[in-house]
């Protein structure tokens, strides 16, 4: 069945790899083992030259686990877990343009996000990723000890961006929904989480979603949260995926953050997203 000859090429020093030579619609268990190993090794994999229907994307996502529901964008007809990320040439704001890991404000946030490029701008529109394992490992022993017992309160409110309703209202090309309930989405997760398959520890905290450490005020917590984000996004902990139509990038939300660069005004970008593999970080 399979006729794949898979090549995995790292794209940066810390994380990220490009995969060529695989057709994800025709993948046997041996192919999947290589793709999955690359995902474990590099945390972010950009798989080139795919032709994926919505059902194909659901099938690839199922390899990572059950699909997750995203509360703030309507799903596609017949595919409630898939949604379209669109920025039209007339729009100024993009979706996901701030460092974060996906939906950490839910009780069981996703293991993986799959993002498939349908239409990409002539230039720009890349996505940045950072390595939360490398960021954790480079901390001093004193900082690791301080973080070990801490839990983060994660909220969907996006207060730092003026509130989710206002923020998403400006993402005009997308089917935004339910943002009036954003403040009710809150979940407490460890600031340092351990990843099952690799045993690695990763910082699990972002300025966008983590509003406080449990038992502390937002004012007390903010300086440390801000510092952790500045540390984790140092250039040497990052990689950058340059999209082309047909690229499927899969990232590990337990061990990375991402940030969609908004540098392509006047051009169209159209992606399709699925999150898979609900996890319980606690
Ligand atoms: C997201 O945060 O899911 C969007 C990422 C992107 O569009 O590059």
Q: If you had to describe this structure to a student in words, what would you say it looks like?
A:
- The chain is an alpha+beta fold and 282 residues long.
- The chain contains six helices and 15 strands.
- It is globular.
- It has one domain: Clavaminate synthase-like (Double-stranded beta-helix).
- The model has no long low-confidence stretch (mean pLDDT 95).
- Helix 1 (29-42) links the parallel strand 2 (17-20) and strand 3.
- The strands form four sheets. A seven-stranded mixed sheet has the order 1-2-3-13-5-15-4, covered by helices on one side. The chain has a three-stranded antiparallel sheet with strand order 12-6-14.
CATH class: Alpha Beta
Helix content: 10-25%
Taken together, the total number of domains comes to 1
Strand content: 25-35%
Number of helices: 6
Largest sheet: 7 strands, mixed
Order of H and E elements = EEHEHEEEHHEHEEEEHEEEE
The structural class is alpha+beta
Chemical compounds bound to the protein: succinic acid
Structural Rg: 18 Å
* Number of strand segments: 15
Annotated CATH architecture: 4-Layer Sandwich
Q: At the third CATH level, what is the topology name? A: Double-stranded beta-helix
Largest sheet strand order:
1-2-3-13-5-15-4
- The CATH homologous superfamily corresponds to Clavaminate synthase-like
Which spans of ≥5 residues are poorly predicted at pLDDT below 50? none
């Amino acid at each position: 069945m399979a006729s794949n000859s898979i090549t995995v090429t790292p794209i940066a020093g810390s994380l990220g790899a490009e995969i060529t030579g695989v057709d994800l619609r025709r993948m046997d268990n041996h192919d999947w083992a290589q793709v999955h190993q690359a995902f474990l090794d590099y945390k972010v994999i950009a798989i080139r030259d795919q032709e994926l229907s919505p059902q194909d994307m659901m099938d690839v996502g199922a390899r990572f686990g059950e699909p997750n529901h995203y509360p703030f964008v309507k799903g596609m007809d017949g595919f409630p877990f898939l949604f379209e990320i669109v920025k039209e040439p007339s729009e100024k704001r993009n979706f996901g343009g701030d460092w974060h890991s996906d939906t950490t404000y839910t009780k069981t946030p996703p293991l993986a996000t799959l993002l498939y490029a349908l239409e990409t701008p002539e230039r720009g529109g890349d996505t940045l990723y950072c390595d939360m394992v490398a960021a954790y490992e480079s901390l001093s022993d004193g900082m690791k000890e301080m973080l070990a017992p801490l839990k983060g309160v994660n909220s969907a409110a996006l207060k730092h961006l003026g509130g989710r309703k206002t923020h998403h209202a400006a993402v005009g090309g997308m089917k935004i929904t339910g943002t009036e309930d954003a403040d009710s989405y809150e979940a407490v997760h460890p600031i340092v989480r351990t990843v099952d398959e690799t045993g690695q520890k990763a910082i699990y905290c972002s300025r966008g979603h983590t509003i406080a450490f449990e038992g502390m005020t937002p004012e007390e917590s903010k300086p440390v949260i801000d510092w952790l984000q500045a540390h984790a996004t140092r250039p040497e902990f990052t990689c950058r995926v340059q999209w082309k139509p047909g690229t499927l990038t899969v990232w590990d939300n337990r061990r990375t953050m991402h940030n969609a660069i908004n540098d392509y005004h006047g051009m169209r970008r159209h992606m399709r997203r699925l999150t898979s593999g609900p996890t319980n970080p606690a």
